[in-house]
Amino acid sequence: MWLLMTKQQPMIEANNPSLKSWIHVKADSDFPIQNLPFGVFKKGDDSPKVASIIGDQVINLHVLLQEGFFEGIELPLDVFDQNSLNPFITTGKKMTNAVRGRLSELLRLENQELQTNNHLKEKVFIPVSEVEMLLPVKVGDYTDFYSSEQHAFNVGSMFRDPENALLPNWKHMPVGYHGRACSIVVSGTDILRPKGQTKSKEQTSPVFGPTKRLDFELEMAFIVGKSTTLGESVGTDQAEEFIFGFTLFNDWSARDIQTWEYVPLGPFLAKNFASSMSPWVVTIEAMEPFRVSGPKQEPEVLEYLSYSGDAHFDVKLEVYIEPEGEKKTKITSSNYRNVYWNIRQQLAHHTVNGCNINVGDLYASGTISGKDSNSFGSMLELSWNGTRALSLEGESQRLFVEDGDTVTVRGFGEREGVRIGFGEVTNKILKAK
Ligand code: MN
Question: In angstroms, what is the span from residue 42 Cα to ligand 1's centroid?
Fold first, then answer.
């Protein structure tokens, strides 16, 4: 009994569903007092600053630190006077959790420290509509996995054969590839339709031009919070100590370029023209209430990939398409729990050969598709390789993403009346240069 009780993690006080804030938060907000994610904003000509958010109010953490509100937490004085979260994340989980905990205290209904200081409140809180949100982390390296079984099955069925949809290695390791870090952009950035080589089955030689099959990929990503040195491996049991938090992720893809180029070395120009992420990093600690068990893994995985406990997360995911001048249509509803391989296995696999990881590295899940056809995570699957048009509200139909379309990914967990959201990653497609 005693052993059982000690295995249970105590609740993180900042996650307590009964907490209320003196800042007004709408019921459908992604950012109640229980969330307190981290991001980087810029207001006018001021230099970028690290922030959190509650409701629709951005919280300038640099001002709070300068004014002594984080006394007792040994932070470098310029840690929030930065254009990325990397220096803050580098201080370690003890510090970052202490900051989230202290923020939670300051924002509680019964706490007067900040609530009654009108002069300071004006400097600390800024409506989110008045700031520009920047890319939250300096991403050194970016890896994209392929961890949803339904997605891998769908793609394998379309491109190869439904009988042998999953390649022989798929259930033995979290398959992935190294992506391009420097073309990761923040939500709100316009995406240029990429050009490249394509060759359809009917064509005898390749042609060059704008992609005709531009696609989104509905993904989640985690951000590394602690570095390792070359030669070191991270086991599944320690993996979460190396994870700072999560964002929404859209791994933009050009399917016709991909089909022609991907053999034998995998994705290249079909993917590296842009990927986009949401501006707020939700800490793994804030996601604690949404842990769920994963699927039974059959065949049994090798020892270094085995794990115990709940390492999947129940996060509802949605994608919307809004053609220029038309209504927004929700085109899919999936869930982060629809992944076969979890974050512990992904990190353990990535480092098992001694590959080092660094603060700010980004690991994306791969497209997250559910079982039903209205829960698929890409146009490739929703339109079944361009054979079934999707009807949008109004007149439009879509096989793939068109110029002028705005694609928005949203995500949130909901439990005991508390909604922990990720905000959104939204981008408009511009016609090719
Ligand atoms: Mn992907």
Answer: 29
Measured in angstroms, how far is the CA atom of residue 245 from the centroid of ligand 1? 19
For ligand 1, the distance from its centroid to the CA atom of residue 220, given in whole angstroms, is: 10
- Quote the pLDDT of residue 405: 98
Can you give the pLDDT at residue 9?
A: 67
Q: Which CA distances in Å does 311 have to 307, 315, 316? A: 9, 13, 16
Quick one: CATH architecture of 15-134? Roll (2.30)
Q: How far is the CA of 363 from the centre of ligand 1 (A)?
A: 10
pTM: 0.97
Beta pairing partners, 248: 220
> Where in the chain are all domains bearing CATH 2.30.30.230?
15-134
Name 142's bridge partners: 362
Does domain 142-430 fall under CATH 3.90.190.20? My reply is no
Q: Which residues in the chain are classed under CATH 3.90.850.10?
A: 142-430
332-391 residue pLDDT tens: 999 999 999 999 999 999 999 999 999 999 999 999 999 999 999 999 999 999 999 999
Give the catalytic positions in this structure: 151
Three-state secondary structure along the chain? Answer: CHHHHHHCCCCCHHHCCCCCECCCCCCCCCCCCCCCCEEEEECCCCCCEEEEEECCEEEEHHHHHHCCCCCCCCCCCCCCCCCCCHHHHHCCHHHHHHHHHHHHHHHECCCCCCCCCHHHHHHHEEEHHHCEEECCCCCCCEEEECCCHHHHHHHHHHHCCHHHCCCCCCCCCCCEEECCCCCEEECCCCEECCEEEECCCCCCCCEEEECCCEECCEEEEEEECCCCCCCCCCCCCCHHHHEEEEEEEECCEEHHHHHHHCCCCCCCCCCCCCEEECCCEEECCCCHHHEECCCCCCCCCCHHHCCCCCCEECCEEEEEEECCCCCCEEEEEEECCCCCCCHHHHHHHHHCCCCCCCCCCEEECCCCCCCCHHHCCCHHHHCCCCCCCEECCCCCEECCCCCCCEEEEEEEEEECCEEEEEEEEEEEEECCC
Average pLDDT over residues 36-62: 98
> How far away, in angstroms, is 194 Cα from ligand 1 center?
16
